[in-house]
Specification:
It is built from 16 helices and 14 strands. The protein is of the alpha+beta class. The protein has four domains: about 200 residues, Histidine kinase-like ATPase, C-terminal domain (Heat Shock Protein 90, 2-Layer Sandwich), CATH 3.30.565.10; about 70 residues, Helicase, Ruva Protein, domain 3 (Orthogonal Bundle), CATH 1.10.8; about 130 residues, Ribosomal Protein S5, domain 2 (2-Layer Sandwich), CATH 3.30.230; about 60 residues, no CATH class.
Length: about 525
């Protein structure tokens, strides 16, 4: 005879931690760094604070593969009474709102705590102070997986003499530093590309990294919004009706949904066959299902607003890519907002060329979702498909080429291809926008490469003509008895007139449009 029991949510996630990225000691260490960094960025940039993040990984017990991870930021901090729940209760978060977040479920920090206590039986140490707080609060916390509640092992308060604000976290877990080292470095460097306004300092057992702040400009902070009529399901409507007692259907639609005014609501209800003055809570289960179906089918809704999204912007993308990739040139675009299934999204793309980017048979692809670098499952990502199918030869790119492509999707709901959240699924609307964004950026690259070709062609013509100036000037000097230097000077002016530019300008433009190795060739040619 089978026996049945309920499995508490915290215990379920502890047993199935790989669903949150904690597959093994290598991936778990990388995932821990990622969760801590992303929470720090959300706690700073969203509130207009330039992020400063300090990270440290240290080996605690080499034989047991225990490592400690410390992260500290200068964010808004966590109220003292909320710290235990934020770190010790699964599905307790500030992220359950309709606006763009790096995190989706508010689960990451709790998974770090669960993994740590499962592998080392050590609590998480948290220290935090909010803006203008007189006190710093410190806790040592574990999670009671059966009750899904925090276990507070220690609680302390300190006077906040220097008005510090932010959050500091230390956790000891089983981790493979050597296995995770390269991924962690890649993740931090790619984070610096998408967030050049952040300063990140990392210290590891055998790796120090200082990613300097490259700009003080922050992207616009996302605003909180209402759901779009096409994005809801029956359960969501039922929950919304609990807070809408006494409302008519017309009032329910206009007050609870984005981009729905009275005129739009009346037109929809008439089209769908509902009485605008009927009480919303009086809908039968069958009518409720029909209402949701009609809301999804109706084509008269305005597209979702995008002010609860926070794109990086072309300027910041170019700053970050040039600084971290060491590119010769970067061209970025931010597309206009679009939507899929009632969820707004924006696609951004950048192409980086030359400089320190090594030539390759296909472009280096850097993928981002809501400013999160995606390092795993590249083959399953629609961005890889878009880049591979792109006709690069139409844009003067011949492989092997020193080319990197950055694609960023921001949305209130990223359509991930799997539970691991490392690849974006093939959604037609998003795929189309990726292609258009890449095309727009590639057009700028083509213009740059065309200009570069033209400048090199003019320079080569000048070098060809200039080779004969000395000999011609000498012969003319013998014939005309004029000074050779005057004749040579006039010949150079004649060449400049023929080419339509001066020698100084030609050399200046040529050097600005060439790589380091090509610049050496230009300098040598001028010397000759």
């Amino acid at each position: 005879m089978y026996s049945y029991e309920a499995l508490p949510v915290a215990e379920w996630f502890r047993r199935n931690r790989e669903l949150a990225g904690f597959h093994n000691s290598t991936r778990a260490l990388y995932q821990t760094i990622r969760e801590l960094v992303e929470n720090s960025l959300d706690a700073t940039e969203t509130y207009g604070i330039l992020p400063t993040i300090y990270l440290r990984v240290a080996v605690e017990d080499e034989q047991k593969s225990w490592v400690s991870v410390y992260a500290e930021d200068n964010g808004i901090g966590i109220p003292g009474n909320e710290i235990p729940n934020v770190f010790g209760r699964v599905f307790y978060s500030s992220k359950y709102r309709i606006k763009q977040h790096r995190g989706v479920f508010g689960l990451g920090l709790k998974m770090v705590v669960l993994y740590a206590q499962s592998t080392t039986n050590k609590p998480v140490l948290v220290r935090s102070a909010t803006l203008k707080s007189d006190k710093i609060y410190e806790y040592q916390i574990m999670i009671d997986t059966n009750a899904n509640s925090p276990i507070i092992l220690d609680r302390r308060e300190y006077p906040n003499k220097y008005r510090w604000h932010g959050t500091a976290v230390k956790v000891v877990l089983e981790g493979n530093w050597l296995g995770a080292k390269k991924r962690i470095e890649d993740y931090l460097r790619r984070t610096a590309i998408i967030a050049p306004y952040a300063e990140i300092v990392f210290k590891g057992p055998d790796m120090d990294l200082w990613l300097k702040r490259r700009t003080t400009k922050l992207p616009p902070a996302p605003k909180e919004g209402l759901p779009h009529p096409k994005s809801v399901d029956v359960d969501t409507i039922k929950q919304m009706l609990l807070d809408s007692r006494g409302m008519t259907l017309l009032e329910f639609l206009t007050e609870n949904f984005d981009a729905v005014g009275e005129g739009t609501a009346k037109a929809f209800l008439e089209w769908a066959g509902f009485n605008p003055n009927a009480k919303a809570t009086a809908l039968t289960p069958e009518e409720l299902v029909r209402l949701v179906e009609k809301m999804k089918q109706y084509e008269g809704w305005r597209r979702p607003r995008a002010d609860w999204l926070s794109p990086v912007g072309a300027e910041l993308l170019e700053i970050g890519a040039k600084a971290i990739l060491g590119a010769e040139a970067v061209f970025a675009v931010t597309r206009k907002p679009e939507s899929y299934g009632g969820h707004p999204f924006i696609v951004e793309a950048a192409v980086a060329w030359g400089g320190q980017i090594p030539p390759s048979d296909k472009p280096l692809l850097l993928r981002y979702a809501n400013k999160i670098p995606l390092l795993y499952d590249e083959g399953a990502d629609v961005a890889r498909k878009v880049v591979d199918e792109f006709h690069w030869d139409n844009y003067k790119v011949k492989f092997p080429a020193p080319l990197a492509v950055i694609i960023h999707v921001c949305s209130t709901k990223i359509p991930y291809a799997s539970a691991g959240k490392e690849a974006i699924a093939e959604v037609a609307e998003i795929e189309k926008e990726m292609r258009l964004a890449l095309r727009d950026a590639a057009k700028k690259l083509r213009l740059y490469l065309s200009r570069k070709e033209k400048e090199m062609e003019l320079f080569n013509k000048y070098i060809t003509f200039a080779k004969y100036v000395d000999e011609i000037a000498h012969n003319l000097s013998v014939i005309t008895r004029l000074e050779k230097s005057i004749i040579a000077q006039n010949l150079h002016k004649l060449i400049e007139k023929k080419l339509g530019t001066t020698v100084d300008e030609l050399v200046k433009h040529t050097l600005s449009l060439t790589s380091a190795s090509q610049q050496e060739e230009v300098t040598e040619a001028m010397a000759q």
